[in-house]
Design a protein that fits this description.
Helix content is about 80%, strand content about 0%. The chain is mostly helical. The chain has one domain. It is flat. The mean pLDDT is about 90.
């Protein structure tokens, strides 16, 4: 497995662990005690605003630990140079991620247009962002293996 592929895999696993851990924390701390809070816009706003810096900080820590472990295991530094192929793969995966999130956004807004509870909209937004991220990283692995 190529170094870029390992980095992508670590990123995907980190995203899954971060979202899963944060979701469990929020559920046990807030939703389990008060199920009615799930329809509160203030709760969802806070939950999203806290998730963003927590996710960013956790990803930074995960990538630092990965760099250290990679250096110990392979005695190689992480590549800091991106060639044209890397940039093209990044652009293709960003395009895929963008369209998937936009689809999720429309589904979230459609849920509100159909009169569904507010939590459906927020779950759709969170889910589409997560799915877009994971599929984007999967597309990167696919393109690296394919050679484009």
């Amino acid at each position: 497995m190529e170094q870029k592929e390992r980095q992508i895999l670590v990123s995907v696993i980190g995203s899954i662990l971060i979202l899963g851990g944060y979701s469990l924390y929020v559920y046990h701390k807030y939703i389990a005690a008060n199920p009615a809070i799930i329809n509160d816009f203030k709760f969802w706003g806070r939950a999203f605003l806290i998730l963003i810096p927590v996710g960013i900080a956790a990803q930074i820590v995960i990538h630092i630990v990965f760099a250290i472990v990679n250096k110990i295991a392979t005695d190689e530094d992480l590549s800091t140079v991106d060639d044209e192929r890397d940039k093209l793969i990044e652009l293709k995966s960003i395009r895929i991620s963008h369209w998937l999130f936009i689809l999720g956004f429309f589904l979230a807004m459609g849920s509100q247009a159909l009169g569904m509870p507010p939590w459906v909209m927020f779950a759709a937004l969170l889910g589409s962002g997560f799915i877009a991220s994971v599929i984007s990283e999967g597309a990167k692995i696919y393109y690296y293996r394919r050679g484009h």
